[in-house]
Amino acid sequence: MAISFELNSTNEKARAGVLHTDHGAVTTPVFMPVGTQGAVKAATPRMLGEIGAEIILANTYHLVMRPGADVVSELGGLHRFMSWDGAILTDSGGFQMMSLADLRKITSDGIAFRSHIDGALHLFTPESAIKDQAKLGADIIMALDYCAGYPCDRAEAERAVALTTQWAGRAAAVHGQRFEMGGYERVIFGIVQGSTYLDLRDRSRCEILELDFPGYAIGGLSVGEERTATWEIVESVAEGLPEDRPRYLMGMGTPLDLVEGVARGIDMFDCVMPTRNARNGTIFTGKGKLVLKNSIHTKAAGPIDESCLCYTCRNFSRGYLRHLFNAAEILGPVLATYHNLYYYCGLMREIRAAIERGDFPAWRVGFIEQYNSGAVNDA
Questions:
Q1: 270-318 pLDDT per residue, tens
Q2: Which is catalytic among the residues 91, 132, 139, 257?
Q3: 55-59 and 34-35 as β-strands: parallel, antiparallel, unpaired?
Q4: Which of 23, 176, 226, 321 has the most CB atoms lying inside 10 A of its own CB?
């Protein structure tokens, strides 16, 4: 099997492994930079390679809307289209049913969207979501799911579970849970839903497990619920997932989220936070967030983080970076994005090393204390 998961080390519930794909090995735990429209904003593929990214996420809804899955396929699929040689995971469009609630209608057949670009009607079915992601060229394809918002009443959460299960079965029936196309293997991950209802999460997990997917995701979290509820659900669901399959927590999160997710047995993460924050001048460091636009940095000659070895920190002062943002120079977001993604990928490497050493629990305590101590050189 070209795509497989190898679990190498565990430390309490934390796991370190390797996800093997035809586009390279992905060491886990891993953070996936988000390339919504076939591009990680303010970052070139070369930059992503330099910082150590091994897998990126692209968004099926947005790429279907523009330029279209057929166009991407005719231009060689996402790997060639965006000149990225590493692994690619695509989401199914399920998240957009929540984030674009005013532009969609949900039926048992799928999700009908009015394009946010031109108003054209597009029907996302479990089958079309698989076919479109295959055309896009993803290594890892997500089954279409019902992502409910928050707050969510029990009736809607039950509908989300029922449709997610039904759609997952239909997704698996298109080509199977794993299939070869375009000269390399693709696999489908199933998604567990159920909002904040633990019994519904348990039901969803059991139903999705029956379909025997090569990997499993936990969706529908970080949508407004309290973090205590988030981690209770993650821990409950993860404990019941197979040890030999990768576990993916969708749409999270902050550096603290990554550490807390790993502590509960999660292997894969994605979030727009490091890139979106960078474009607004907010930087992540081991001592929390730093806001470059703050006046304290006007004459600061030092880097963002003295301990960071990224291109930005080795070459540019905080004073210069603040100037770039105040002058609306595009280089500012580019350099900030480089640092934030470097920090996130480096954090995952630190976590993996702690798991392999067998001291992740102690490392976690120290990391949280330092991160909450306040951003370096900031007011």
A1: 999 999 999 999 999 999 999 999 999 999 999 999 999 999 999 999 9
A2: 91
A3: parallel
A4: 321
- For 104-150, write each residue's pLDDT tens digit: 899 999 999 888 889 988 899 999 999 999 999 999 999 999 999 99
**Can you give the pLDDT at residue 379?**
44
In the chain, the amino acid numbered 274 is P
Distances in Å between the Cα of 379 and the Cα atoms of 31, 242, 296, 374 are: 29, 45, 7, 9
Strand ranges, E, within the chain: 4-11, 14-21, 24-28, 30-32, 34-35, 55-59, 87-91, 104-107, 110-114, 121-124, 140-142, 178-181, 184-192, 215-218, 247-249, 268-270, 282-285, 288-291
Q: Annotated catalytic residue: which of 145, 257, 270, 378? A: 270
Please give the C-alpha separations between residue 372 and each of 68, 115, 130, 263, 363, in angstroms, as whole numbers: 43, 41, 42, 18, 14
Domains of the chain: 4-271 (3.20.20.105), 278-371 (no CATH)
Reading the block at residue 104, the tokens are: 């969609």
Q: Which among 58, 72, 48, 34 is positioned nearest to 269, based on CA atoms?
A: 34
- Residue 109 among the catalytic residues: no
Average pLDDT per run of 10 along the chain, which is 379 residues long? 92 98 98 97 98 97 96 98 98 78 86 89 94 98 95 97 98 98 97 98 98 98 96 98 98 96 98 98 96 96 96 98 98 98 98 98 98 70
